[in-house]
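Pipeline run #58 for the internal structure catalog. This entry was flagged by the ingest filter as a single-chain record with no existing model, so it goes straight to prediction. Upstream metadata was stripped on purpose; only the residue string is passed forward. Reviewer on rotation: M.T. Logging verbosity set to normal.
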Amino acid sequence: MSPFVLINLFVVEPANQDRLVELLTTVTDQFVRHSPGFIRSRLHRALDGTKVTMYAEWESREAYEAMRGDTRPAAYLEQAMGIAEFQPGMYEVVGEFVHAEV
């Protein structure tokens, strides 16, 4: 079974990018990564300062939805939404490519 994947784009003013990274790092480290069904996530900062993207893998959509029921992260996410435009996306993995040894 392929993991359930979220690729969430946050559009942010460059002056707020560091704060957004800090908020997303804190909420993921303190709460999200401890949730049953969480596999991994990666947080990306755009070099131009205008975007932050988070890629997250979950065992299932149900595991992700169960985590969303946890109210503890709400204050962090509310702050993030106050400084960034949130463009969420839900995906399924249809291909994976790794470095090939020559």
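catalog note: The chain has a mean pLDDT of 94.
catalog note: The CA atoms of residues 38 and 58 lie 5 Å apart.
status: ready for reviewer M.T.
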